[in-house]
Specification:
The complex is a heterodimer. Chain A is mainly α. Chain A contains 13 helices and no strands. Chain A has helices spanning about 1-10, 10-45, 60-70, 80-100, 115-140, 140-175, 180-185, 200-225, 235-240, 250-275, 285-290, 295-320, 325-355. Chain A starts with a helix and ends with a helix. In chain B, helix 3 (about 70-75) packs antiparallel against helix 4, helix 5 runs antiparallel to helix 15 and helix 12 runs parallel beside helix 15. Chain B has 16 helices and eight strands. Chain B is globular, with a radius of gyration of 23 Å. Classes of the chains: A mainly alpha, B alpha+beta. The interface of A and B includes residues 48, 143, 236, 327 and 328 of A.
Amino acid sequence: MYDFFVDLFGNKILAASVSAVPPLLFILLFVLFAVWLERKVSAHMQDRLGPMRVGWHGCLQTIADLIKLIQKEDILAKANDKPLFNLAPILVFTGSYAAFAAIPFSSYYIGSNLDLGIFFIIGISGLVVAGILMAGWASNNKYSLLGAMRAAAQIISYEIPTILVVLTVVMITRTMNLHTLSEMQTGYIWNWMIFGGPGTGLEKFLFIPLMIIGFLVIYTSTLAEVNRTPFDIPEAESELVSGYHTEYSGMKFAMFFLAEYANMYAVSAIVTALFLGGYQSPFGYFGNLIGASWLVPIEQFFWFAAKGAFFVFVQMWLRWTLPRLRVDQLMALCWKYLIPIAFVNLIIVGLITVL
Amino acid sequence: MLIETNKISPYQLAVKTEQMVLNMGPQHPSTHGVLRLELELEGELITKVVPHIGYLHRCFEKHAEVMTYPQVVPYTDRMDYLASMGNEFGYAVAVERLLGIQVPERVEYIRVIMAELQRIASHLVALGTYGADIGAMTPFLFCFRDREMILSLFEMTCGARLLYNYIWVGGLSHDLHPDFVRETREFCSYFKPKIKELNDLLTYNKIFVERTANIGILPLDTAINFGVSGPMLRGSGLKWDLRKDDPYSVYHKFDFDIPVGEGNMGTVGDCWDRYYVRVLEMGESLKIIEQALDQLPEGDVLSAIPKRIKPPVGQVYARIENPRGELGYFIISDGSVNPFRVKVRAPSFVNLGVMDVLCRGHLVADIVAILGSIDIVLGEVDR
């Protein structure tokens, strides 16, 4: 994408700015959809209707909420550390937005085709922690501070099993480029990494259970990384009011909100790209069938968005079903179960690939 | 070089650690109203909890002194607003004992049905909000859905959904609606599977058990020393229920069990036990309602209401088993139409006293679990 625009404009800065627009548009549209979906999913799980007034079945509710948030007063308390307080939501959003640069939406659309794609995503997501910690500290509110501390501890701990599982996949595929990774999983559903990847024979057969374990581990830990139930401890409503964004209002709050939903999609996209074939269709392409090859990228985009949206739906499903863990239990789950499982998984996969 | 270990280094003096005092409430999502908790924290560990009450104080007891006896009834509704029927019931029992009158059988049966329906409704709120405190929002709404049905039954009977003014001294404000018996039976058969649903969704959920078992353990001796009553006391393992141990009204005619905490998931007297006692009590209440509906006698509910309520000089203490525990009314009469003094022994108020003992050494997140398992209603704590 970026290379395409460089060729088109002959100017790197212009090309970079233009290629940054589609992910932003995607995030905004996705958040509009996801917030509405979250409310509808929760409502139907709880024997309610949810928003029904604005638009068809309340589908414009999020836009109405957004307009409301824009109009709201931007409250700054006296005791806030103002520069940090203002910077924090931007930093949090930047972290999750930047991750979208390396996510391959289809074989033709990838913001920046980095060779270290997955590495970049994990690295840049670290900005989110800094932003959250900043928000909690600058709010000068004890609940916010507790929330921020919990968030930092939680996100950093859960990055370890995530990275271990990512490494497992990288060891098999020998690439960190998400585009290449997705291309490797082309063909049919059994070429996806969760079903052992594109290899053949005994090796592939051995990978299947290991990959499923890896998938479960990474999905659980990404849930924790984006602070969703059962790991929504940093924002635990019943304990810490709203955690690190208690003191935020108006558009700054909306930034946190946006970042949260963008993050939800980002982690789902990573899981999809690593384990579920990325943008590959589970069966052939309709475009190839009728000889219209221009249709293929659009189909790929559809598959990628759909797979991501499905995992976002599962996140919502879990949120409205499960209670919340406690801080120590959360840490115990990470350090006593997920990390050892991921590590042993890594070693076994390593042995198989070497032998 | 020798290192003196017991000497405080200048660095340690420079880095002075102190405990963080966190003020929880009165505006906080999970203090169940306007309770303020002053927490002393060591990191996330609780070293001390001081509950501050009085934000909902409405001078009920003082008000009662300038009201006539029947006029007090609507005020009792507003104490434990989740169990208004029980409050009225207790007051009516107390004044009737002071007057020395007998009420018709039918009145007693209807009172029992109402009180037990109210117990289910109240426990549904307790269990639902408990789930919400732990982080599960869905059981909360399921519980409220079922509670709506009970409120509809009440609305059908007396027109009100929350504050009924239904149980009067010597009788009831209305007789039952002709459809009431049928609809209550329908509710009973509807509600039985819903208890199982709640158990599947929340009670045996692994995360829920992890959060509540072995948390906030209340040993039986501590419970008795603090005068704790109701599901909290039974959660600690004592089979003590005023409906059996100090029977009032017609409770002696019904066959029901008293569930007690058995430490199924952890230790006897932990949060899970208190929660589960409430779940089981809903089933027992259903049993009582069904028996009462079967035996419901005919008669008039208004005939025994005295025209002029003017008890003789004296005093009385009457207690009933409200959903939250022993609700007692101590009334002194000076022979006039107004009570000289009305003192309420509010179960929530007494139960809240053990908060500090239960919370010490737990994490901040456990405060919510413990407070939820005490199940306070601030309207009753402050009165």
